[in-house]
Design brief:
This protein is mostly beta strands. The chain has 1 helix and 9 strands. The longest helix has 16 residues.
Length: about 130
């Protein structure tokens, strides 16, 4: 009985914590898909940590790229840090207005380059 109660508590905690964070739309570049997550989950004014998550087909991680971020068309590019070989690149960037700001993601892989644009209004707490 004790194990059952403990299992119920754990499952309830997991369920209540999952699904609350907003998810950015997935964007494709070449043969890869990209999405972003933030820390904290909901986007607000100030410094936010952005995680760029890159996947190959079948959700396999895409690593070995140089990913840089900037806020808006004229911001300064800041190189993200690759988090192991798991297809996650992270960097803190200042958000001025979550309703209108757009995160630009510059991708370099081998001799290919591309830019993706992620409007941040998807992640505002409602």
């Amino acid at each position: 009985m004790r194990h059952f109660v403990l299992l119920l508590i754990v499952l309830t905690s997991i369920i209540s914590c999952s699904g609350n964070a907003p998810e950015s739309p997935v964007q494709n570049w070449e043969d890869l898909s990209f999405r972003i997550e933030t820390r904290p989950d909901f986007i607000s004014k100030g410094m936010m940590e952005f995680l760029v998550i890159a996947n190959r087909a079948h959700k396999k991680p895409a690593s070995g790229m140089i990913i840089s971020l900037r806020m808006g068309e004229t911001g300064k590019w800041i190189q993200a840090i690759e988090d192991g070989n798991v297809g996650v690149y992270r960097r803190a960037v200042r958000v001025n207005d979550p309703a209108t700001d757009v995160l630009y993601v510059h991708i370099e892989r081998k001799e290919q380059e591309g830019i993706l644009k992620f409007p941040l209004n998807y992640g505002i707490e409602k």
